[in-house]
TrEMBL record:
The lineage of its organism: Bacteria, Pseudomonadati, Pseudomonadota, Alphaproteobacteria, Hyphomicrobiales. Residues 6-145 form the Endoribonuclease L-PSP/chorismate mutase-like domain. This is Endoribonuclease L-PSP/chorismate mutase-like domain-containing protein. InterPro entries: Endoribo_LPSP/chorism_mut-like, RutC-like_sf. It comes from Sinorhizobium fredii (strain NBRC 101917 / NGR234).
Length: 155
């Protein structure tokens, strides 16, 4: 892992956990050429989904932003696993897709996904600035409040 990324993680108090194994018939990441695709990551912390329910009913924006941060940390965990432990190989975070389990009248999905966007930009610096989508969903696996996937350019 590059020293710069390691320093930022330490300053932010973030410890990258072991990558979570898939729970169905898919792989957690795929590499083709210089592109790393990371499957949707849930807000898993200490082995369980940490934030569940629907934003706008069971979950407020602040808790949902924390869920998005956990998804981003799990994206970094998968990237670390895919890249042999070297997050310094990330050239650029190209795009994230953020899915927010929310009630129909909730329209601040973009604020929720800011939790992930801000964390990734803070950890990866300029390489962490990305395109994204933030959409509302009727439900997500395991009643998770947020799920995020990612596309990265790698060395």
């Amino acid at each position: 892992m590059s020293a710069e990324i390691e320093t930022r993680l330490n300053e932010l108090g973030i410890v990258i956990p072991q990558a979570v194994a898939p729970v169905a018939n898919y792989v957690p990441y795929a590499i083709t050429g210089s592109t790393l695709y990371i499957s949707g990551q849930l807000p898993i912390e200490s082995g369980k989904v940490a934030v569940t329910g629907h934003v706008g009913k069971d979950v407020d924006v602040a808790a949902a932003q924390r869920a998005a941060e956990l998804c981003a940390i799990n994206i970094l965990a998968q990237a670390k696993a895919a890249l042999g432990g070297d997050l310094g190989r990330i050239r650029r975070l190209v795009k994230i897709n953020g899915f927010v389990a929310s009630v129909p009248e909730f329209t601040e999905q973009h604020l929720v996904i800011n939790g992930a966007s801000n964390l990734l930009a803070n950890v990866l610096g300029e390489a962490g600035k990305h395109a994204r989508a933030a959409v509302g969903m009727a439900a997500l696996p395991f009643n998770a409040a947020v799920e995020i996937d990612a596309i990265l350019e790698i060395a």
